[in-house]
Each structure stands twice: as structure tokens, then as C-alpha cells.
Design a protein that fits this description.
This protein has 262 residues and is of the alpha+beta class. It folds into two domains: 20-57, no CATH class; 96-246, no CATH class. It is built from eight helices and six strands, in the order ααββαββααββααα. The protein is globular.
Length: 262
């Protein structure tokens, strides 16, 4: 008790008032202060990066100008309009006026649209034809069955290489109309193999097999791997041509004869 009576009582000094922004810039608290409103100096936001709306054309969000309109010539068919499969072809295919007229007859209910493609500098020609809705359905129905019976492993469709490979082969099976070997001297067909439409009348099935499975075995299985790979690659070009004709359906300039575009 004696010691308490002899001790000197001191009044603590008042705390200094807190001033926003007074935190030293090199302290952790300063760095935190940049993230909290009212504490420290707030860092200015990073400028918005331009958003690409199409190749070689950009629009900056900080600009008040309206976005540029897409011109027909800026369109490039990269994927199938029906299923989204990537064609992996460069540029838009060139379509002749004759092909445009034949395409119009096709969509109006006449014969299928066909196109002849040359391989190996013209030593081989392959004719592709468009598919019907029923044929497309058969392709994807069969892919479902192939997964169910273990022919191809179960996986998200376009994430499975086996699924994509089998899909491309089925589509090629249905699309190929003929293959001709050409005499390089006379430029005349030496041998032509025609492939009828894939249905139960043209391809005899057994044990519950679907016509597309039989056609796939009869058409592609006897071919060399190199030839099938070449046909698959060229089939992408045919599909890109068909995709162009579909995408350009509402482009009036595209359907005008050559030399009469506005």
C-alpha cells in the first residue's frame, strides 16, 4: 500500500486523430488501403482492352462510335451451320454461278446438290452429294448405338477423338457419290466407282445392323488409310461450300450473277 501512495499518477496523452491517406505507401496496410474505399489512395482502374468482334476489326468500349456493321465479304464459314463442326479450311470457298443455280434447284426440292473435287492434281476425282435430314439423323443415331455397344468409348461427343473420327467417316459414307481414276494423258476416267444412296434397298443388312454400318464397311473399309484420309480432308471443303451456300441465303448480292453485284 505504501508503494501505491508514493507512485505518481500520469494522465495518458490523447491519441492522434486518424487521417485517411496518411498510411505510408510502403506498408502492407497501404496496399490493403488501395482495395478499401476511404482508406489510402485508390488505384485508378486499368483501361478496358479493345474487344475483338471479328478478325482485323475492333471496337473500343471507351469510344462513343457505333460498332462497325459486318459486311457480307467479312463472313467466313468456319463451322457447320447445322452441328457446329469445325471445317478447318482457309477462306470462303468460291462458288460458281452454275453451282448457285443448281443449289437453288436442290433446296426447292429437285435433285441433290453435287460437286466434283479433284485430288492429286486431277489423277482422282470424287463427287460429293448433300445429305437428307433423315440421313443426318441416321448418322447421329448410329453414333449413339456405337457408344452404347462399346464400339467407341463413352465421352462428351466433341471431346472424344473416336467419336469425331467415326462421325466424319459416317458423314463421308453418306456423302460420297462416286470416285473416278483419271487418265493423265487423255483426261478421261479409267475407272469409276459409283456409290448408291445409303438405305435398306441398296445395302443389305443382317443381325439388326443399320444400312449406314453396312455402307461404311463396304465403301470405306476396303480403302487404304491414306485414301480415306484424303477423302475426309476434301469432304471438309465440300461441307464448307455447302455451309457458305446456307449462310449466304439472305445475302442478295451473293446470288446475283457475276459482275452484277452492287
Amino acid at each position: 500500500m505504501g508503494d501505491m501512495n508514493n507512485s505518481e499518477f500520469k494522465v495518458p496523452a490523447p491519441a492522434e486523430p486518424f487521417t485517411p491517406g496518411a498510411i505510408a505507401e510502403d506498408t502492407p496496410a497501404a496496399d490493403f488501403g488501395h482495395k478499401v474505399a476511404g482508406v489510402g489512395m485508390q488505384k485508378p482502374p486499368e483501361p478496358a482492352a479493345p474487344i475483338a468482334v471479328m478478325p482485323n476489326k475492333q471496337i473500343d468500349l471507351t469510344d462513343d462510335e457505333a460498332a462497325p456493321e459486318l459486311e457480307p465479304d467479312d463472313l467466313e464459314v468456319k463451322h457447320c451451320p447445322a452441328c457446329g463442326f469445325e471445317f478447318d479450311v482457309k477462306g470462303e470457298p468460291q462458288v460458281t454461278d452454275m453451282e448457285k443455280r443448281r443449289w437453288l434447284r436442290h433446296v426447292l426440292g429437285e435433285d441433290r446438290f453435287t460437286r466434283v473435287h479433284e485430288l492429286f492434281d486431277g489423277a482422282l476425282t470424287v463427287t460429293f452429294r448433300t445429305r437428307t435430314t433423315a440421313e443426318n439423323d441416321e448418322v447421329f443415331n448410329q453414333l449413339t448405338l456405337d457408344i452404347r455397344d462399346g464400339t467407341i468409348p463413352e465421352a462428351p461427343a466433341f471431346a472424344s477423338p473416336a467419336y469425331i473420327a467415326r462421325m466424319c467417316r459416317y458423314l463421308l459414307t453418306v456423302s460420297v457419290e462416286s470416285i473416278a481414276r483419271i487418265d493423265p494423258e487423255g483426261k478421261m476416267p479409267v475407272k469409276t466407282t459409283n456409290y448408291p444412296e445409303v438405305n435398306g434397298d441398296n445395302y443389305v443388312t443382317k443381325d439388326g445392323e443399320k444400312p449406314i454400318v453396312v455402307a461404311h464397311a463396304e465403301i470405306l473399309s476396303p480403302m487404304s488409310e491414306a485414301l480415306v484420309a484424303s477423302l475426309l480432308n476434301e469432304h471438309k471443303n465440300f461441307e464448307a461450300t455447302v455451309g457458305t451456300l446456307i449462310v449466304r441465303s439472305n445475302d442478295p448480292d451473293f446470288w446475283k450473277p457475276a459482275g452484277k453485284h452492287s
